[in-house]
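ARCHIVE RECORD
Type: protein–small molecule complex
Small molecule: pseudouridine-5'-monophosphate
Source of inputs: curated submission
Record status: active
Notes field left blank by submitter.
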Amino acid sequence: MNQYLVFSQEVQDAQAAGKPIVALESTIISHGMPYPQNVETAREVEQLIRDEGAVPATIALMDGKIKIGLSDDELELLGNSTDAAKASRRDLPYLLATKQTGATTVAATMICADLAGIRIFATGGIGGVHRGAETSMDISADLEELAQTNVAVVCAGAKSILDLGLTLEYLETKGVPVFGYKTDVLPAFYTRTSPFSVNVRADDIETIAGTLKTKADLNLTGGAVIANPIPEEHAMPEAEITDVINRALQEAHANGIIGKDVTPFLLTKVKDLTDGKSLEANIALVKHNATVGAQLAVQLNQLK
Ligand code: PSU
Ligand code: MN
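STRUCTURE (tokenized, with ligand):
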């Protein structure tokens, strides 16, 4: 057992009993949503996973350890703290060595889930190739992680703060399967569609689970993206969200925002510019992904 891993009792029991487990990230709690909705959502998401017969494992860095499964107090601490660092791959060793609190991104959560033997991870949206990346070179470490770490990520696609076409090209180059769950096109987070086709459409969980098992049997390293569109009743009007995202991008540019601050800046701007309407959509899609992620973990567990 890795010396840095600390499991919650619930996750430990699940592992001993061979129950399906779903990993959850914590950057979405600390940097993706405001308090207290972030903590409320984190708790609801965990319960939705339990309702499907799986066990949630929210992941974060605390006291020099990688926590696999957080207590209520730990969730509260992360959600209500202003000094939890956004932790991606490059940040993991430093934050652990200096015993700082770190909220794990998709990339870092995949690494920690893999260390803990968890194969399914549910979140909101993944990072990707930013618009203008041909000059900024801003490409999320999430994509490199998907290229090399064996964890499947259930998400609502990616926000159109990113260049979705280039993001898909990058994933194709790296050999990452991109499933559209009941969709032919990549969902764009707040909206159910985008102009870009997914790699494979899957209309049932069995097909996705079977493909993931075959991928593992073939020793093909790397993750997979399961793109699950936001439920129809929570989707936002396309024109409204496009306008808001363009304004957010302009502000980021005007303020000289770069590096790891770009994504949190844009997320906050989008939320403010929509009077919190985008937050409601964000919460709904994360919950939906948790349910689908749990169903996938249950199915995959049966194939083992
Ligand atoms: N996209 C979202 N919500 C999020 C994030 C991205 O719609 O909360 C977070 C995730 O933790 C993701 C990270 O892994 O931002 C990507 O950051 P960057 O673009 O700096 O790699
Ligand atoms: Mn970046």
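CURATOR ANNOTATION: The mean pLDDT is 97.
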